[in-house]
Design a protein that fits this description.
The protein has 296 residues and is α/β, with parallel strands linked by helices. The protein folds into 2 domains: 29-117, 3-Layer(aba) Sandwich (Rossmann fold); 141-268, NAD(P)-binding Rossmann-like Domain (Rossmann fold). The chain is 40% helix and 17% strand. The protein is built from 10 helices and 11 strands. The protein has helices spanning 8-30, 45-60, 76-88, 107-111, 125-132, 141-154, 172-181, 196-201, 249-253, 267-285; strands spanning 4-5, 35-41, 64-70, 94-97, 161-165, 185-189, 205-208, 226-229, 233-237, 240-244, 258-259. The strands form 3 sheets. A 6-stranded parallel sheet has the order 1-11-8-7-5-6. Helix 1 runs parallel beside helix 10, helix 6 runs parallel beside helix 7 (172-181) and helix 6 crosses helix 10 (267-285). The two termini are 31 Å apart. The structure holds NADPH dihydro-nicotinamide-adenine-dinucleotide phosphate (NDP). NADPH dihydro-nicotinamide-adenine-dinucleotide phosphate binds next to helix 10. NADPH dihydro-nicotinamide-adenine-dinucleotide phosphate is lined by residues 142, 165-168, 170-172, 189-193, 196, 209-212, 230-233, 246, 266-267, 270.
Length: 296
């Protein structure tokens, strides 16, 4: 069997196009422009790339982009004061504080100081609780992107066995909650799981969010299963730096029914879902209906 490749780049372009249409509609019909504020503390190179990409994508769909670049030695009090001012700013509908923060700043405290209604990363403890109890929330972008691709591929996910490998707060746990919300039978696996390969082979949907290059090989995959590879790992191979996922693509694709590649799978969906979340937050803030197909 050769797996269908789920093209995340194309899917993300489609999501961004849908967002762009809705943004134009908001402007024409209501005179509202959604706005996203991104806060970057320090000069971590990877974070700078993400922030630059976010800024460009935000403008591309017609939203307002507010960038706040702060020095690495910014105090917690100053960062909290900035978040408070963004919470109070009616032009800002989404706030994202780029992680990781420098070690002297308490990430949990900062994230939980964001107005939950503007928490487009979905990391605020209120949003975590709302998602866990099946209520309307802001949903973390990467798992939301995975869910959108799975719904598109399968239609209904009800009754499917899903295995999520990884239990982080930003990917594994919210991913499992979303799959449960769509009535999958969900197993969360982690570093202490016994016979991981056998657990994974029970999955109709296998989501890998481990952070270990190419760990999930074809013998972990049930024939015909859908494999979603969240992993982004830089490795050296044949004297070159290469981007690979947590799934060994060649062996898994030989067994799976569908699979996301790395790069070009889940990665592009994350920023697209950030824009979708900002649009959703803007609609909610203005008492307007939420955009269809762009939320959990
Ligand atoms: P974390 O390091 O926070 O979590 C990794 C999880 O994998 C942990 O729960 C850990 O288990 C589990 N794990 C580690 N080793 C094993 C093993 N040998 N067997 C089974 N489980 C194992 O990572 P994240 O969730 O933040 O990220 C996961 C991957 O997704 C990374 O490659 C990251 O780069 C990528 N990522 C991609 C994004 C995108 O936009 N596409 C966004 C965010 C992340 P335990 O809890 O027991 O330690």
């Amino acid at each position: 069997m050769t797996a269908k490749v789920i093209d995340g780049k194309l899917f993300a372009a489609n999501v961004r196009a849908q967002v762009q249409v809705q943004v134009a509609k908001l402007r024409e019909e209501h005179g509202i422009q959604p706005g996203l504020a991104v806060v970057l503390v320090g000069e971590d190179p990877a974070s700078q790339v993400y922030v630059r990409n976010k800024h460009a994508s935000t403008l591309e769909v017609g939203m307002a982009s507010f960038e706040h670049r702060l020095a690495i030695d910014t105090s917690e009090a100053d960062l909290l004061a900035l978040v408070q001012s963004l919470n109070a700013d009616p032009a800002v509908h989404g706030i994202l504080v780029q992680l990781p923060l420098p070690a002297h700043l308490n990430s949990e405290l900062i994230i939980n100081s964001i107005d939950p209604a503007k928490d487009v990363d979905g990391f605020h403890i209120s949003n975590v609780g709302l998602l866990g109890t099946g209520q309307k929330s802001m949903v973390p972008c990467t798992p939301l992107g995975c869910l959108m691709m799975l719904r598109d591929h399968h239609g209904s996910l009800a009754g499917l066995n899903a295995v999520v490998v990884g239990r982080s707060n930003i990917v594994g746990k919210p991913m499992a909650q979303l799959l449960l919300g769509d009535s999958c039978t969900v197993t969360i696996a982690h570093s202490r799981t016994k016979d991981l390969a056998a657990v994974c082979r029970g999955a109709d949907i296998l989501v890998a969010a481990v952070g270990r290059p190419e760990m999930i090989t074809g013998d972990f995959v049930k024939p015909g299963a859908t494999v979603i590879d969240v992993g982004i790992n830089r490795i050296e191979r044949d004297g070159r730096t290469k981007l690979v996922g947590d799934v060994d693509y060649a062996s898994a694709a030989a067994v799976a029914g569908a699979i996301t590649p790395v790069p070009g799978g889940v990665g592009p969906m994350t920023i697209a879902c950030l824009l979708a979340n900002t649009l959703t937050a803007c609609c909610r803030a203005n008492g307007l209906p939420e955009p269809e197909g762009l939320t959990a």
